[in-house]
# Entry
Amino acid sequence: MNRKEMELNSVEVWDGNTCNAQAFRQASVDVVAAYPITPSTNTVENYATFHANGYVDGEFIMVESEHAAMSACVGAAAAGGRVATATSSQGCALMVEVLYQCAGMRLPAVLCLVNRALAAPLNVNGDHSDMYLTRDAGWIQLDSFNAQEAYDLTLMSFKIGEHKDVRLPVISNQDGFLTSHTAQTVRPLPDKVAYDFIGDYVQVNAMLDFSKPVTHGVQTEHDWHFEHKAKQHAALQGALPIVEEIFKEFKKLTGREYNLVETHKMDDAEVAIVCLGTTYETATIAADELREQGIKAGVIAPRLFRPFPLVQLAQKLQNVKALACMDRSAPGGTVGALYNEVAGALFNTPARPVLRNLIYGLGGRDITVNELKEIFTDLQNDAKNGKLTGKIQRLHGVRGPELSFYEL
Amino acid sequence: MGDQKVIKNLKTFSTSAERFEGSHVLCPGCAHSIIVREVLNATNDNLVVSAATGCLEVCTAIYPHTSWDCSWIHIGFENASTAIAGAEAMNKALRNKGRISADTPQPKFVAFGGDGATYDIGFQWISGCFERGHDMMYVCLDNEVYANTGGQRSSSTPIGASTTTAPAGSTSYGEKQVKKDMLQIMAAHGSPYVAQVAPNKWKDMVKKIQTGFATKGPVFINAMSACTTEWKFQPHQTIEASDLAVDSLVFPLYEIVNGTELNITYRPKNIVPVRDYLAFQPRFKHLFKPENEHIIEEWQKRVNEKWEYLQRREEARV
# Structure
């Protein structure tokens, strides 16, 4: 390697974008192809600075669009090396076509998706519209709730995606601005420890291996397409235990624990909130305060949005009486995407809780501890009555008359 | 780079590499297969090839078969150029890191796209790759129509051609726009080498492809690819159609080096009237109605002017 070593302190003050860039550097990514977009721009800006100062020795290409960024990543990954990029919102929307192609070809790229609302109206702030947009693209999707997790999960993304039994691309999600632009204390691994944890890139069907010519991206019809898609689906499902294994390995190395489903005080919880992203930490504060009043509140969050840990989530919800599912994306004429997943996980279980859907925080609108406490209070009514006390869905925190939908 | 391949005659050349096998399902008479074989045969170097969605791609890589005995990738319609640019960047990175040893011969990176993938939907991606200066060759298989989807107009479709989305009718002579001048546009990107080629002038073509492979940086080749299905000639007439295109100067063969030095590489001994080129192809048959004859006249005038312009530029070296 020709790159310079970077001295890191055992504790650094990094924002989420810095975490992404540092993870790219430590993974010694071979090709980063990128296009700037708020709020993920700083990921590639930081990486460009590392590149300009000799801290990385891969190729860094600033292309003319996000679609081209992912296209170059796919070409480079198929050539036989480690690739990564970052994007948000409209950039992610432009990339979506190529996300499907990357996953369909089983190429393990890493995409740091700094979650942001989708236009119109144009909005640069965080919600989960872009995460949901990539839902069925065939990528593994990890979700971090703070900067430390963004660093850890981006590092682990390389190891997960490149695992010989996975061979799939991975999206490492974090909340736009709330995580990406908020400086927090982060404990990075030393460069060598981080790199050794991920390991060297192992080529599979590399285009630059001329001893064995390979055809990538074939055409199929009904005769084979279904089998390809079935195998891809099986590979995604099969990734769950491998992800769990890698989480365990990471815990051994760092002491930091990750689970397929993260829980806070769920052992005896009667009312619970299920959510993604930074809301998890805010909800834990609300739950802790309510616990002091004797209310059995808990918080639960899938660490993976894809593959969705359906069984693991359902197992942890068997004693919960009422559950609020928080969706940070405009629902578009139905219940939220996370609600759908959670409902799907619970429907066939013996003791399923009363379930309500809250649409909240669109375009970066804050959700506070007090608001989450109110949601828990509503859940208590549901739990007491053993049924829904209002409509299934509520748009929480929207100005004007209360908007509630879907009554059974 | 490997040694320049010596080309003796067409017979030995046509079988001198087997990287594009005959097991494809392109139409009989399709010029794509001739051009692709000529490009791949022009070098002994290892090749990394990408193809845009289109006839070439869907007819050569239908799972579980492939016609490609070289590294090959298809991603989408618009991004064949960027896919190959990514592979080229990976090659650079792995060499810089020592994961590919310095004495391993450098491969060549080639992207193929039809005129739709080149002139239209993929234009931005090609422009980006050329601006960034990737060491790659982009070959446009220019059949002047969206043939894979069944004959729609592209911005390479010439004026007066009848296509499914610009059909000739009682009040229309078909395509209204003049074909986009892609070669000049790519030269203006600062490309070190751009050239127009046609499969009938195979020696000229191989020479240009070899020049392209020997050139560092992004090279653009516009290859006239006569389409038996959409131009509506008989499968055995492909070379005849191509001859008419270059002999009428509708498709002049020339190259531009470093954006300035323009060389005309083929001067027809007997220039054929544009009328003869058009008359050969039923896609233009409605132009011979009295009310449409002016299109043929305008076309001849434009071809004359372009030929005049190319000769002046060649002379002036600008």
About this structure: Chain B has one domain: 10-316.
